[in-house]
Amino acid sequence: MPIPASDIDPFSAAFFEDPFPAHEALREAGPVVRLSRYGVLACARHAEVKAILDDWRTFSSARGVGLQDFAKEKPSRPPSLVLETDPPLHDRTRKVQARVLSPAAIARLRETFAAVAGAMVGALAERGGFDAVADLAEAYPLTVFPDAMGMPRENRGHLLPFGNMVFNSFGPRNAFLEQAVADAREAVAWVFEQSKRENLAPEGFGAGIHAAADTGDLTAEETPQVVRSVLTAGVDTTVSGIGAAIYCLARFPEQFARLRAEPGLARNAFEEAVRHETPVQTFFRTTTRATEIGGESVEEGEKVLMFLGAANRDPRRWERPDEYDIGRRAAGHVGFGSGIHACVGMALARLEGECVLAALARRAARIEITGEPRRRYNNTLRGLASLPVRLVAT
Ligand code: OVM
Question: What 8-state DSSP symbol labels residue 134?
Answer without folding.
Answer: I
